[in-house]
Amino acid sequence: MAFLSRIREDITAARVHDPAARGAFEIAVVYSGLHAIWWYRLNHRLWQNGFRLAARVGSQLARAATGIEIHPGARLGRRVFIDHGMGVVIGETAEVGDDVMLYHGVTLGGKGGGKGKRHPTLGDGVTVGAGAKVLGPVVIGGGCIIGANAVVTKDAPPRSIVVGVPATARPRVAGQHYGLAEPDYHI
Fold first, then answer.
1. Quick check: pTM over 0.85?
2. Measured at the alpha carbon of residue 183, what is the angle toward residues 181 and 187, in degrees to the nearest 5?
3. Quick one: how far is CA 182 from the chain centroid?
4. What is the DSSP pairing of strand 160-164 with strand 139-140?
5. Is 38 exposed, middle or buried (0-12, 13-18, 19+ CB in 10 A)?
6. Which GO terms describe its cellular component (predicted)?
7. Comparing C-alpha atoms, which of 26, 29, 27, 100 is closest to residue 70?
8. Could you give all domains of the chain from N- to C-terminal order, each with its CATH number?
9. Is the peptide bond before 166 cis (omega within 30 degrees of 0)?
10. How far is CA 109 from CA 5, 17, 64, 65, 117, in A?
11. Among the listed ranges 8-22, 103-117, 165-179, which one has the minimum average pLDDT value?
């Protein structure tokens, strides 16, 4: 996807997810979650091309500027939106699907040491509430909603509500929106 097309898509995702968004220029200039993702893309490209130190230095500069830490080895899909963002941490082996929304204070963190897959995988359309911690190589199915401050250490099937400490998953009720509108990317 072309560079400018991707930026337009990111701005549209912000408008879709944030009812307070007033315009493309404001979003591009002041949304730290968007800036962190743009920095991540540059650093991820460096990481993939073997410039690991440069990628890590770039990710730390982005963290200092935005308050959001995204490891350059993580894999983020399209139209990921980080709302408010301060305190978000996304670990090295995390995988984030398309159309995912993360609120402030979210951690997609590792559990235990060693090599290999240590961080979560989020399917498409997942929403993760403020302060939630998703730890270890768990898989969160598409369309899940993770409640604020939940501590998730087990897999969750698609279209679940995941709440509590420790978090448990239950099926979403058809037709109930849980206070969230389904994204409309035709704005």
1. yes
2. 115
3. 17
4. unpaired
5. middle
6. cytoplasm
7. 100
8. 3-171 (2.160.10.10)
9. yes
10. 31, 24, 19, 21, 11
11. 165-179
